[in-house]
Specification:
Layout: E1 9-11, E2 14-16, E3 61-65, H1 72-78, H2 80-90, E4 93-96, H3 102-110, E5 116-119, H4 121-131, E6 133-141, E7 144-145, E8 147-148, E9 150-155, E10 170-173, H5 179-188, E11 201-204, H6 208-217, E12 223-226, H7 227-235, E13 244-249, E14 253-254, E15 257-261, H8 266-278, H9 283-288, E16 294-297, H10 300-303, H11 305-313, H12 320-337
Parallel strand pairs: 3-4, 3-5, 10-11
Antiparallel strand pairs: 1-2, 5-15, 6-7, 6-15, 6-16, 8-14, 9-12, 9-13
Helix pairs in contact: 2-8, 3-4, 5-11
């Protein structure tokens, strides 16, 4: 059996200590990309609720967390009102558990110590496949979920009117590790008839705003950038949107997902889902989350499709090897800060 992370943390006056990992699922059940702990009979790409009712969990205290950030106290406080709402909806005590890394958060749900969590966009795939997480919502508004797109921009007077016109041109990507600035165009543009690095020359600008400014100044013929960065630059008057043409806009990339553990009692799940879908953010929470005022309903199968496409095209794998690699990078990053 795979190694388990032993988490110790004071939560609501109680110590969360080691617990045994869940039993393996039927080896013959369909599971797609899911770990052998889980089954996916209905084909929705997330772990099914256990068929054995004795494995349904109905804890007296629900442990909740949000994706790790530089200052965890900021979001612990931001979610305080929602935790109270969730407590009333479920009849359970709800406590906030601060995690130190994405990999630790995933291991906590996998081992049964975490019941509800917000996972970052990329780590959501690991949480689904390795921890049995079932995403149900992202932050949003009545118009849709909070997210951003990859857009390919050029100057309106450049003579470039379509992606096909970029062949033989110089295009600024931001940096090798950037999603919308490099990985997403490499994954998505070939289906549009344009292969980055083959059909056009790639130069790296370093940042999204530098790519935008480089296009405006004529240093680059075009650039793939994050739509939210571009929109903010236009709103601030840094660039004139009337001078820029958007040649391509990708499907929207979701921000952090909110998910519950697959083995919670179905009656409890209904109360949790209901709380997420009916809660409305108070003003301080809206300010903390850039104007989002609710949890917008989503499904992993439909709304994370573009993220999975990018991961597959760039060789990323939402499996144990991929999680271990992410954990190693997190540890290296943390060590450099010391």
């Amino acid at each position: 059996m795979r190694s388990k992370l032993l988490l110790c943390a004071a939560v609501g006056g109680a110590m969360i200590m080691g617990a045994s990992a869940p039993a393996f699922a039927d080896e013959n059940c369909p599971r797609g990309s899911l770990d052998t702990l889980y089954c996916d009979v209905d084909g929705d790409l997330v772990a099914d609720s256990p068929t054995d009712e004795s494995k349904w969990k109905d804890p007296s205290t629900l442990v909740f967390t949000y994706t790790p950030v530089e200052d965890p106290a900021v979001y612990r406080d931001a979610f305080a009102d929602f935790q109270e709402y969730l407590s009333k909806a479920t009849g359970k005590k709800v406590v906030y558990y601060t995690v130190q890394s994405n990999s630790a958060e995933i291991e906590a749900m996998r081992s049964g110590r975490l019941h509800i969590a917000g996972f970052s966009t990329g780590p959501t795939g690991f949480a689904v496949n390795l921890a049995g997480a079932v995403p149900i919502a992202v932050k949003g508004t009545p118009d849709g979920f909070q997210g951003y797109n990859l857009i390919m921009i050029t100057r309106k007077d450049s003579g470039i009117k379509s992606l096909a016109d970029l062949k033989g041109k110089k295009v600024a990507h931001t940096s090798p590790s950037s999603n919308s600035g490099n990985l997403a165009p490499r994954a998505l543009l070939p289906d549009e008839g344009l292969v980055p690095g083959e059909d056009y020359e790639i130069v790296f600008s370093g940042k999204h705003d530098q790519s935008v400014m480089g296009v405006v100044s004529g240093d680059y013929d075009a650039a793939p950038v994050a739509s939210d960065v571009y929109t903010r630059m236009v709103a601030r008057g840094v660039v004139n949107g009337d001078e820029i043409e958007v040649l391509y806009r990708s499907p929207k990339f979701p921000t952090s997902s909110f998910a519950y553990a697959h083995d919670l009692h179905p009656d409890l799940v209904r109360k949790i889902v209901g709380a997420f879908h009916t809660y409305r953010f108070p003003k301080p929470m809206q300010d903390a989350f850039k104007g989002a005022d609710r949890f917008y309903p989503i499904t992993y199968k439909a709304d994370w499709d573009v993220i999975r496409t990018i991961a597959n095209a760039t060789g990323a794998s939402y499996d144990r090897k991929g999680l271990d690699a992410m954990a190693a990078k997190e540890a290296e990053k943390k060590a450099k800060k010391k």
